[in-house]
Design brief:
Layout lengths: L1 E3 L24 E10 L2 E9 L15 E9 L3 E10 L7 H10 E5 L24 E2 L19 E5 L6 E4 L10 E9 L4 E11 L7 H10 E5 L2
Antiparallel strand pairs: 1-3, 2-3, 2-5, 4-5, 4-10, 6-12, 7-9, 8-9, 8-11, 10-11
Length: 226
């Protein structure tokens, strides 16, 4: 892994080391760029490896894909991830990563949503204001808290497609508060995209509205030039 103390752009992708060692992968070869906002500033991480963690694999789909993720918290700002997966020997080289990097269109102004997040330490007491609506049976959609005193934030998910919405004040959900993220898979072989998924955990009154979902789409762009 290589660490760079600023956010790189497509003209700054470094050369891969000549002494890269080979690993035996079961299913795929992978490369990734992660852009991080940290306490001590912004960093870029560039890595090349074998199989991808199962929680980042698209369900029942090709293993030749590019995955893009943007996330935002009011405390640190935005992080980004480009993960490229391919299935031929030594395909996770700089040329392959650069092509995926050049194809990705990623723009966001998610800091505009900071008014949805309560700064400081406090107990969330507006659980009754959270939108309680779902039109999906997806496993990622948790049940509504029966006792709203156990609800720590409002939740909004769009799962698999824009028509599947889950809005809740859940009793428990494995995701930190005060965060919004959006992720998409792109498949170069058939020029399709999958799983445009939005996740929001917010801590102000009625913050998980469908109007908020529309704003997240308007304030973020994840596209791919096939």
């Amino acid at each position: 892994m290589e660490t760079i103390n600023y956010w790189i752009n497509v003209r700054q992708l470094p050369e891969f080391p000549e002494d890269c060692h080979l690993v035996q992968a079961d299913k795929q070869c992978s490369t990734a760029i992660r852009w991080l906002s940290l306490e001590d500033g912004k960093k870029s991480l560039i890595d090349y490896f074998g199989d991808v963690s199962s929680d980042l694999l698209p369900k029942d789909s090709s293993l030749h894909f590019s995955f893009a993720l943007i996330s935002h918290t009011p405390r640190l700002g935005s992080d980004r991830l480009l993960l490229h997966s391919c299935t031929t020997d030594k395909c996770n080289n700089r040329t392959s990563l650069l092509k995926a990097f050049q194809s990705l269109i990623l723009e966001e102004k998610l800091s505009t949503l900071n008014n949805l997040f309560h700064n400081g330490s406090f107990s969330f007491t507006d659980g009754s204001s959270c939108l309680n609506y779902t039109n999906t049976t997806h496993l990622d959609c948790p049940p509504m808290a029966t006792d709203l005193s156990y609800c720590s934030s409002c939740l909004l998910l769009s799962i698999e497609s824009p028509s599947e919405i889950c809005a809740r004040c859940p009793a428990f959900y494995d995701m930190p508060n005060n965060i919004v993220d959006r992720q998409v898979y792109f498949f170069p072989d058939n020029r399709t995209r999958l799983g445009d998924k939005i996740s929001l955990r917010c801590t102000t009154k009625a913050c998980n509205s469908l109007e908020t979902w529309e704003r997240i789409h308007q304030l973020s762009t994840l596209e791919y030039k096939f």
